[in-house]
Amino acid sequence: MERITAGDHHTSYKLGALTITSLRDGYVDMPIARLRQPGNKMFGSDLPPQIHLVDGGLRLSVNAFAIDDGVTVTLIDTGAANAWHPSMGFLPQALQEAAVAVDRIRTVAFSHTHLDHIQGLILPNGQDAFPQLSRLLVPKDELGLFRSEERLERFHNQAVPLEGGQHLGTNIEAIATPGHEIGHTCFRVSSNGETVLIWGDLVHVPSLQFDRPEICWEFDADQEQARESRLRIMALAADNRYYIAGAHLDSPGVGPIFRLENRFRFDPL
């Protein structure tokens, strides 16, 4: 996997015959209290020293990923647009910077339905972000959650269910990874012997959760299930020498992962 272009809001890589682009929608700052130890226990004075803080909080990058096969583009997640903090909503600028024309994006697939992943379907001015969108894939168990989003009402009937094991095309396979949300999904993207796992929200705080993958996130719908999914996918990536691409890994959030006894190490490209 080789980096080919980069800018303030994007980094593009060659993966076999594909181009994978990390798109920086922005960032969100969260309190340390969002981190949870087993048993839903918060950290107190025992906060691990390796955690990187910005003004006393956790800064989470918000990334989406475009997969370009030379004909069309599949987009995994869409960012937050203007639906949450003003530090997000830069996906359109990222696409422009990366020279990814929005009318080439025909498929959008969501890792899950939290607002920082789905609200970018609509631009702040109310227009459709992807005017040629023909396929909108939402994890099957979260279709109800998606259809409860009033801002996205015009997309409710367009959404079709996405299930683990489903192939989005020749190069992309969905993998069920529930826990953070009931239908949370990863995407295995392969070409010419190389593979990257676009893994959504399996990790929120990379300075901590690779070293201590048992640590969860307050907003995990099921912390035990989220922990199991994280460990399973980390092992899958490390044992098969896959690259990973994370929605909340520090932008661009792409690189290999390695086993270190009962923990892991992420080496950003």
Radius of gyration: 17 Å
CATH domain class name: Alpha Beta
- State the helicity in percent bands: 10-25%
Q: Show unreliable segments.
A: none
Strand content: 25-35%
Give the number of helices: 5
Give descriptors for this structure.
alpha+beta; 8-stranded mixed beta sheet; 5 helices; 6-stranded mixed beta sheet; 34% strand; 14% helix; globular; 269 residues; Metallo-beta-lactamase, Chain A
Provide a descriptive summary of the structure in words.
With 269 residues, the protein is α+β, with helices and mostly antiparallel strands. The chain has helices at 91-97, 115-118, 143-146, 206-209, 223-240; strands at residues 2-6, 10-15, 18-30, 35-37, 41-42, 58-68, 73-76, 105-109, 135-139, 159-162, 172-176, 185-191, 194-198, 216-217, 243-245, 254-260, 263-266. The protein has a single domain (2-266), classed as 4-Layer Sandwich (Metallo-beta-lactamase, Chain A), CATH 3.60.15.10. The chain contains 5 helices and 17 strands. Strands 1-2-3-6-7-8-9-10 form an 8-stranded mixed sheet, with helices on one face. A 6-stranded mixed sheet has the order 11-12-13-15-16-17. A hairpin with a 3-residue loop joins strand 4 (35-37) and strand 5 (41-42).
